[in-house]
Each structure stands twice: as structure tokens, then as C-alpha cells.
Amino acid sequence: MRRHTVPPIPVNALERGFAVLECFAAAGRPLGNGEVAEATGIPRPTAYRLISTLVALGQLRPCPDSEKYELAAGVVRLAQSFLGKIDARRWVRPHLVALAEACSASAFLALRDGKDVLVVEAARARSAVAYLGADVGTRMSLATSALGRAWLAGVDAPTRQAVLAELQAGGHLAGHPDLAPRLEAALRKARRVGYAVSLGEWQADTNAAAVPIRVPSGEVFSLNCGSPSFLTNPDKLRDVVIPRLVEAAAAFAADVGGLSGRELMAWQDTQAAAVPEFPSLSPASSKQGRRRSIPQGDSHGDPLSQ
Predict the structure, then answer these.
(1) What is the Cα–Cα distance from 148 to 212, expressed in whole angstroms?
(2) Does the CA dihedral 82-84-88-89 come out positive or negative?
């Protein structure tokens, strides 16, 4: 059978039905027929018929104490069916491949595993095969890699505090006198701009940037792109890699109904509890009961700081 070569004709009633559901989802509260009509631009009689149909289908339900309606369990069933089938590796794969090819570099998706992040999916440009040996199963440091820093920036403040405390207690920041303040500065910048950078810190002569992504289950991934510094210098990282990386992370997040980068940080700010954003990582910072002031940007050798 030949495939259709012309776009299908949209079904207006179906479009309007989903517009009504989106209206309830955006409002986050019960709505009356008139409110739905006003918000969607659908005539009141039509809005009433659509609402009645959605009630009959179990997607909406009438509120017992008013003449308004709210989302019902039918919506939850649809959402659970979708969320239960999310395979992050499968969903991210085309974005990783396109990103790696566009930047002539390697791109990875990673999750936290103990003191490291673990690469769970990888792609590399054909021109990059000979240059970077990391692949699925590679571990990278939470403290020094772009993937690790993006993950730390992307989780909620209590989780970030707990993991940083574990790194400090486990001695994973020891042996590098300036690592603690560098990490604090990197995380503060990542929280501000929506991505993290590592310039030769995880592995000498390797530059990379990464963006955190939170999927609907609450799990946080990080997605990066990078290569040896002779292929990706700081200027290329800033001008070529980071813009494409941010776009790829946003596209992946949109596919799975998640949040990434600055959008994730903004959402977290509205959810945050009244706790300090970062614990003190260096011994000097706890003196006199106050946290050490952390220098920003170029004072820690980050040429990408704005």
C-alpha cells in the first residue's frame, strides 16, 4: 500500500477536545463551562458538549460541590501508560547522533552511580571515532566532568547537598586544593545558565559541556557533548557546541515530557525549600560560622564565564 503524501486533514472536534483537556491541565483547578469557553475561544454550547463527552469518557468529572469540572482518572491512565514505556536511551538516541554529527564530537547520556556518573547511551561523529574512547559503561567524576556537574546542578537542593557531603566525606575532593571552590563556582554558574562546563578537568585535553534533564518520573539525566581540546577549543565550545547541546537537550525533554537546562532551574526555584543551595566544601569555608565567598568566572580559569 502506498503511503499518503499529503498531510492528513485535522479533525476539528478532536483538536477542540484536546484543547479543553489542555485548558484544565494548565489551570490546575476546577473550571466551569464559561471559563473553558473563554480560555479556549470555543463557543459555550460547543464547550459544554465537549465537556459532557469528556465526562462520559472518564477524562473529566463534575465537582460535587459546584457546577465546575476537574480532570479525572482517565487522564492518569493515559499518562501512566506513556510514562511506563519511556525508554530514555531509545528516546535520546536520535538527538545524540544529530548533536555529535553537528559538532564533530561525541555525545553522551548519563546517570549518577555513586561518586560518578555512568554513561548509559553514546553517539559520536564519524570523524570523532578515533579521538575519544568513552562509551556506554564509562564512568566520569561527579566533581570534574561536565556530565557530573550538570547532574549536580539539575537535582533538587537537598539531594545536591547530600551528594556533595558524601563526596567531601569520602575524600573525593581531596588532593586537589582548588577543586572544592572550583566545583562550587561551576555549580553556581550551571544553575544560572542551565549548563555545566569542564575544560580539561575530568580528563586532560578534553573539553565538554552538559545539560541536566529531569524526566517525569523525577529522575535526572545529563546530556553532554565534547571532544579533545585540539578539536573543540573554548571558542568552539561556546559558539558551536553549547547552542546545539541546549537545543538537543530541550528536544529530548520535550519528547518525554520533561524539563531541561534553564527551564528546569526555573521550575526548581519555584519548588525549592528554604535551605542553602550549596554546602561548604572546603575547611576554610566553615570558619567563624559562615560560608566562604566563592570567586566567580575567570578567577577559576573558566574562559566561558559571562
Answers:
(1) 9
(2) negative
